[in-house]
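Entry 12.
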Amino acid sequence: MAYCQICGRRGQIGRIARHRRGVASRKFAKRAPKKSRRFGANLQKTTFYINGRRITVVVCTRCLKKLRQASLAEKIKLLQKAVGPISVKKPAKKAKAPAVKTAKKEKKEEKKEKTVKKKKAVEKKKPAKKKKNAQK
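Predicted 3D structure (tokens):
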């Protein structure tokens, strides 16, 4: 059975009156028969992003309204009831998995290396330019 993770609101059991015509000449014939049923709470599944952390909670619409109007500090207090302690610091970034090299990427890297080697070789052959004196 679903419930609000902040205030604990759940569905309730009640009775509903069915208004129909009764049979004539009997006691309580025209009385509306009552039937029991369950009245569910208006629960919504919502996601909040706090300090880079995604928090998904099931809340009733009254608590949802409070959360939308609240400041960041108040939101953290309310959501701690539902989820538990929320750290204020941003979580550390996860390291990316090493990328798999394809044949095309390898060829491009080889070409880059060759061009860099050629440029270095050309620079060695050229004599260094003499700096002109600023004062004449």
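Annotation: The chain has three helices and four strands. Residues 12-18+28-83 form one domain.
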